[in-house]
Amino acid sequence: MLDLNDIAMFVQVVRSGSFAAAARRLGLPSNTVSRRIQELEETLGTRLLQRTTRKLTLTSAGEAFHARCADAVDGLTDAGHELMTGSDEPNGLVRVAAAADFFDVFLMEWVADFLAAFPRIRLDFVLSDERVDLIAERIDVAFRGGPMLDSGFVGRQVLPNPGDGMVASPAYIAARGAPAVLQDLVAHDCITFSHPGGRMTWRLAGPDGVHNEVQVTSRFSGNTAQTLRKAALAGLGIAVLPNAISRLDLESGLLLPVLPQYKCTGHGLNVLYPSRRHLPLAVSAFIELAIEKLRAWDAAHTSRST
Predict the structure, then answer these.
(1) Residue 209 belongs to what domain range?
(2) Euclidean distance between the first and final Cα of the chain, in Å?
(3) Are residues 191 and 126 in the same domain?
(4) Which of 99, 111, 120, 200 makes an SS bond possible with 195, Cβ 3.0 to 4.6 Å?
């Protein structure tokens, strides 16, 4: 099997004009360089260099081999040099996986500022409420709610777990009344994530921390939080929504809290990435920006609502 180091050494010998000069550039003994070139010739089954006491001359096979290899060796050298010298400046493609409604919270202005600050970085967003395979999709950063289940990935909490609350529109409450106790939900239209059969169980924690279960009926379901929010705004029923999704609507009165003493186990928000070791600067820069912006956004909205 060809040794790429020997090929690179051969190119260096040709450019240097002698084994001794090549050995000095490579920091190796001259006899080591000569021996490695001989081993390369034996592997190829042909002579590449004619050796005399005064100079080295390429054979026709050596000339053809050098013409094919020199540019490739330069390309590999340049690639390695670019990685080493470019490591001081974030660069390259960062693939980001997040929920379908990610940009309802993560402002596009933040993306624009980030790309302006790091002109050598490219961003590619993969938005879906389905859990994509981070390895198969070559994802560098993933934002996910709930427990961090991806083994082998590093996880950091971006936003705390405040508990998701029940909400409904003023029109729905006016038409159907507000439930007074948890079991009243059985008689209400509820808006849920897609579930076969139209019935599902909500598990909610009361003010005493005890979890209670109630089976609710859904006449409308969907697979994204924004879909459920829009259905609630349209008066289709009572929905359980993350605080980050419902907060502005609650502040403006477009949605009303329902049984606010009960909370569904919240999702919070976590960021996942493959490893702390050799984390590309482009990935690290994006993670730090996202955490900073999202926490500032959450703090600003929390202070407004208290």
Answers:
(1) 165-264
(2) 70
(3) no
(4) 200
